[in-house]
Specification:
- With 79 residues, the protein is mostly helical.
- 82% of the residues lie in helices and 0% in strands.
- It contains 2 helices and no strands.
- Helix 1 (10-16) packs across helix 2 (21-78).
- The longest helix has 58 residues, at 21-78.
- The protein starts with 9 loop residues before the first helix and ends with a helix.
């Protein structure tokens, strides 16, 4: 069974299919060039999502700290 192509070198892929490494390299370069804007867009979207999640996480931590303090305050008040 062959390993995934993304984990192999161009030379090893070319050899396994009896192709010239330079030809496979040209195909890879063309594919990367044609799909680079799509990949960049996905990276930007992922970065934006990470920023939103971090902001939400920060807000939830602040709310949690507030609730801990409120619970401690009311626990002392009941004594």
């Amino acid at each position: 069974m062959r390993s995934p192509v993304k984990d192999r070198t161009i030379a090893s892929v070319a050899a396994s299919y009896d192709l010239v490494p330079q030809t496979v390299g040209n195909w890879v370069a063309r594919y990367r060039k044609e799909h680079s804007s799509q990949e960049e867009g996905e990276a930007v979207a992922e970065s934006a999502q990470i920023a939103r999640i971090r902001a939400e996480n920060r807000e939830l931590r602040q709310e949690n700290e507030f609730l801990k303090k409120a619970a401690a305050f009311f626990a002392q008040e009941q004594r």
